[in-house]
Here is the input.
Amino acid sequence: MRANWYYFQDEGRFGRMSQPVSCWSPKGIRPQLPLQRVREYTYAFSAVCPQDGDAFSLVLPYSDAGTMQVFMDEFTKHMEGQPALMIMDQAPWHKTAKLELPPTVMTAFQPAYSPELNPVEHLWEHIREKYTSYHYWRNMDEPEDALCQALRECSNDPETIKSLSSFCWMRL
Here is the structure.
């Protein structure tokens, strides 16, 4: 039985995005850099427990009420029937009447426009810095594979999750 039952949840957008970069080159030489003029995304849904470093994630194609329902259903299976408090932002798909919450999951919402209060934001920053930055993705399979690998590695390392998600204001 789990002793810890509160989780912070968020979605992060990853994918193929145009992001021109500048670089230095000797005078008179025009550098050639690969540039993508595309906007294709996938979404990581994650919930983390700062106290014990437990993390649960899914990579889904959209961020809407339907995919949030899939996440909640799978999270309930992950919790094996144990109760959980899910703390999340006020995205419309978190508060919609279409979302059928499992009886073992309660929700609480952060103040509006306060991502700095959500520990999962640090997980996104970690993944972007360590796993997905400075890549030229030829297709969506490549960033999705990198994202899945990053989430697997982080989920299998509770100490990393705890270090990313434990804030000084939390009572653990």
